[in-house]
Amino acid sequence: MDRQADITAMRRAVELAARGLGATSPNPVVGCVVTDASGHVVGEGWHQRAGGPHAEVHALRAAGVLARGGTAYVTLEPCNHTGRTGPCALALIEAGISRVVYAVADPNPQAEGGADTLRAAGVQVERGLLEAEAEARNLAWLTSVRAGRPFVCWKYAATLDGRIAAADGTSRWISSAASRADVHRLRAESDAVVVGSGTARTDDPHLAVRGIESAVQPLRVVVDTHGTAVKPGARVLDDAAPTLIAVAEDAETSLPDVVRLPRAATGGLSVPALLDALHARGVRSVLLEGGPTLAGAFVAAGAVDQVVGYLAPVLLGAGPAALADAGITTLTDALRLDITETTQIGSDIRVTAVPTTAKGA
After folding, report:
1. Identified catalytic residue from 56, 77, 133, 289
2. pTM of the predicted model, to two decimals?
């Protein structure tokens, strides 16, 4: 077997999977490439939307009879259950596929077992090719399944000295236009965008995706403990995207689309309760755009899975920092991060990092 051809096909499947970001929840993003018995690509597909055909089905339809005796490269283990669509393992068997190469095992107990079904039917099955690349592309969904809560990406923009606003409160614009456009990409790839009451009062944010064609609008969530920050006529209440206001159980509010949650010991809303409520609504990925107080609450709750910081070549010397009290009082308790990417966006640097998992790293 041509190892390089396998790698090329799987890398293409990973690229295809990314096309479904933001549109498949609560399902994963998956890409598939089908080659014929001679190794030529005859079909490609990706999971385009929840409830629609899975990646394997799209690729098999494109391949037609040429799939018989061929190989399917899939970024996630083919599913083994019938939901709104049939099991992909069975579809591959019926199409006559003789070999399946998949990158990541399916951690969902309702869908796992596809590899065993394929082997039982005489299909050659291989696991783990480009596993790290495929896992990174599907990180949000995989985290949500493994942790039982939505994946949380905390995004912020700051000066090089870590300020998100000047001493007088002015903050527009610290980051470049290119960075602000990139944030809309992050929104489009997320199921929900979350801000706190401080951001709602100060900025009256809109939180909908702009400038990205055919984007599925995320759920706009405002954490408004007392139910006083979001006023009638607020931009977040328009019909551009769905909205949910999270308030305390004893808050007095007449706003529509409210979810009542218990308070944390610190007085704000319970972050785990908020994430549970969002998960129950099918949210599998959250973009946290709130200010330093809300970010601190999420960090303190151990609920930040990824950090995306836009660092502008600006110095202020005073003003609020990007992160407020996160329950960390000594350096040994600091949340250590592994940088996974640094990219120049306009005049800024975008830094992407994840919490360090290796002990002592």
Report:
1. 56
2. 0.90
